[in-house]
Amino acid sequence: MATQDNDIKILNDLIETTIDSADGYEQAAETAQNDAESADLADLFRRFGNERRIAVTDLRSQVSLLGGEPEDDGSILAGAHRSFLRLKSVFGSSRARVIEEVEAGEDVIKAKYEDAMTADISTNTRAVVEKAYASVRAGHDTFSAMKHANQAN
What we know:
This protein has helices at residues 4-32, 41-65, 79-90, 95-118, 123-152.
């Protein structure tokens, strides 16, 4: 049976990971704009970073509606954050390598959202998670397709 405390915990975990993802995209955009081979990715990184910020706002609103205290910071230990740190180190190597690292980070956040959607959460919380997941899934699918296109070439 879904409980408010469980919903709040799951939402706050997603908030941390989604903040890390948004921060990672913003850092990647700054780095990409200075990397000749990946400069065109900067706008894409910014777009997904902005989408993640919107998702964080929605997740926080749900935590507040449930009477909880929403997370306001990411987790330095999050897998998505580690992936974006690795990403920063591959700029200047190859475009394909940059895309592979972004896709690896997207795998992490996608899995977290999928776990949350299979958890015992309330209908309203599930709706908020599913809405945020749509953006996560779009980011994952975009970079997965780019990665596979690069492998085909």
